[in-house]
């Protein structure tokens, strides 16, 4: 493998159909496979999986004595936990976890088989997190999983396993945050300040949230390195999606984002592939990539495909001994809500350092897969309908608002559509023996067609009638379930 350089990047941009400006990039189309996929699996696995305490920001917070943990509320802070468990930070730094990250039980084929059974259509491992450790065979830094730790090309092995199961392979890059991620560690001269470890810890510049507004922040050397790393990822693994975390929103990234997108889209054109970029906030121009909301949803249909990324645990993306797991039935409800609004759900799991997937994560995935095996007809390959649904429950429109949503109720119904069939999912099955879909009433302003038949997905036909109140469906013979119940409503 030849090390990539800026001249090669410019050559691909200059000779391809996409140029590094928003007008040109807006002509890229969202892949049809992505619109049809609806459900993917995210994987946060790296050196931070070794301490397995707090969350994936352990690398940063182990150096911040006064830092309040972002998501966990454990009694002992990450800083104190590290001090008590591993010793002073200047004697045992984050770099010292790398030899302990052995991945001795990592079985990519077993992972792929699980994700396929869960119903995932695409799989996205973290290629590089904020900690600067690459999980792939990079020529740009020795701080990677091939030369250290597992001594395996984790991303390459996963790509082969995922594609063998006919799922699309994607990668995420969280590299941008490495500019400031270890700034707290600058107080520890023999660790983060040591130039021998600069390739891992990065510039360790002070974090200033105002950088996004005022344009201060990463210098040219860091930004060029960021561009080279992301383009190297593209060349090595030809991913179907490249996902970026939020800090590329920094204004100094703008010209580099355009260069990367032009390079990636042009390379995809050479391969004959359909690809996409995920972004948060307004990092990319509307219409040039796929909008992503971290731990949040939308309140209505978005005409352009969008995505929610969230995790099976409420408090962490990586494996942690104190993870607070979600109920799989609630995750299924969110999946339906997201799909009804023209979105996809990217659901994260956090393997242990040895490469095994925790029983809780596996159990959640299998439960979702079991539900999709019966009800996926109205999820996969569908589009949104005229309206997303009905009922009182609203989702947050911002990042990190999923915890603010009220529980779904018996009146919450969500719609999808495919080939003359309207799918209606009742998110909580009523106990009184009938479902009333008011959006399909005789005087509905949304519906002026003919209903030919109504069936319960996985069970068959059911009694129904149209009234001024709505489509009334007899549910008295449907067994009680904590999961949503889907109805296929055939129209003419």
UniProtKB/TrEMBL annotation:
The keyword Lipid metabolism does not apply. Residues 7-377 form the Glycoside hydrolase family 29 N-terminal domain. GO terms for cellular component: lysosome. Coiled coil: none annotated. It is an enzyme of class 3 (hydrolase). Residues 409-490 form the Alpha-L-fucosidase C-terminal domain. Belongs to the glycosyl hydrolase 29 family. This is alpha-L-fucosidase. The lineage of its organism: Bacteria, Bacillati, Bacillota, Bacilli, Bacillales.
């Amino acid at each position: 493998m030849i090390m990539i350089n800026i001249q090669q990047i410019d050559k691909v941009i200059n000779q391809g159909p996409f140029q590094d400006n928003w007008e040109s990039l807006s002509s890229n189309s969202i892949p049809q496979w992505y619109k049809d996929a609806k459900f993917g699996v995210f994987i946060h696995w790296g050196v931070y999986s070794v301490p397995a305490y707090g969350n994936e920001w352990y690398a940063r917070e182990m150096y911040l004595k006064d830092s309040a943990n972002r998501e966990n509320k454990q009694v002992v802070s990450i800083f104190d936990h590290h001090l008590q468990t591993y010793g002073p930070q200047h004697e045992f730094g984050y770099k010292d976890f790398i030899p302990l990250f052995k991945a001795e039980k990592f079985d990519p084929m077993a992972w792929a088989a699980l994700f396929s059974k869960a119903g995932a259509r695409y799989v996205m491992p973290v290629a590089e997190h904020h900690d600067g450790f690459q999980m792939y065979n990079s020529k740009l830094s020795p701080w990677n999983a091939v030369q250290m730790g597992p001594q395996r090309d984790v991303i390459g092995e996963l790509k082969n396993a995922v594609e063998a199961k006919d799922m699309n392979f994607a990668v995420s890059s969280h590299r941008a945050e490495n500019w400031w991620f270890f700034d707290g560690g600058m107080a520890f001269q023999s660790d983060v300040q040591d130039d021998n470890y600069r390739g891992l810890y990065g510039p360790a510049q002070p974090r200033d949230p105002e950088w996004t507004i005022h344009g201060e922040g990463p210098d040219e050397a860091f930004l060029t390195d960021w561009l080279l790393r992301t383009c190297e990822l593209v060349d090595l693994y030809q991913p179907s999606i490249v996902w970026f975390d939020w800090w590329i929103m920094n204004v100094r990234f703008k010209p580099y984002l355009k260069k990367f997108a032009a390079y990636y889209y042009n390379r995809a054109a050479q391969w004959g592939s359909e690809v996409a970029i995920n972004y948060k906030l307004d990092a990319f121009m509307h219409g040039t990539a796929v909008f992503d909301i971290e731990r949040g949803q939308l309140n209505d249909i978005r005409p352009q495909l969008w995505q929610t990324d969230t995790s099976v645990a409420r408090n962490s993306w990586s494996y942690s001994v104190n993870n607070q797991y979600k109920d799989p039935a609630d995750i299924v409800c969110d999946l339906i809500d997201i799909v009804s609004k023209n979105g996809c759900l990217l659901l994260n799991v956090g393997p242990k350092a040895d490469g095994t997937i925790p029983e809780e994560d596996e159990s959640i995935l299998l439960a979702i897969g079991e539900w999709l095996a019966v009800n996926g007809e109205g999820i996969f390959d569908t589009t949104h309908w005229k309206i997303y649904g009905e009922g009182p429950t609203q989702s947050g429109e911002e990042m990190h608002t999923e915890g603010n949503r009220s529980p779904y109720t018996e009146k919450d119904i969500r719609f999808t559509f495919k080939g003359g069939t309207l799918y209606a999912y009742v998110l909580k099955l009523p106990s009184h023996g009938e479902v009333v879909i008011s959006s399909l009433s005789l005087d509905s302003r949304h519906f002026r067609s003919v209903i030919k038949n109504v069936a319960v997905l996985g069970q068959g036909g059911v009694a129904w009638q149209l009234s001024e109140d709505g489509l009334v469906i007899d549910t008295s013979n449907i067994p009680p379930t904590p999961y949503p119940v889907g109805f296929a409503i055939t129209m003419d």
